[in-house]
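quick one, 116 residues, struct below
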Amino acid sequence: MIRTTLYVHPRPGDAQRVIDLYEERGVVGRAMTTPGCHSIEIGLLAPRRQMVVVTAKWDNRESYDTWLNCKDRAADIEALSPLLSDPPTPAMIVEITGGSVSLTPAGQQMSVEAAQ
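---
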């Protein structure tokens, strides 16, 4: 199992427009139909909320590569380009080797799960 993290660099004030474009183009839905994709999350890096962060959980690198080679990705990147100050940072890939810890937004509760 792997977790990918992509940092997207919007122009000042365009972070929400980037997220909206992901939704309008159905990027998350298409990615979730890729065999081996378990989850995708899009958020804003705290505390300034100026950078968009996209994380996903995949079976393996081959599953992620299938998504990277999807025919619609080039059009998605082209549509995003006018909203970006810099190209997205290449995704970091983390191999999940143990359990995971989940915290509530307030950090008051914690649950631990075994890796699948």
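The first strand starts at residue 2 and ends at 10.
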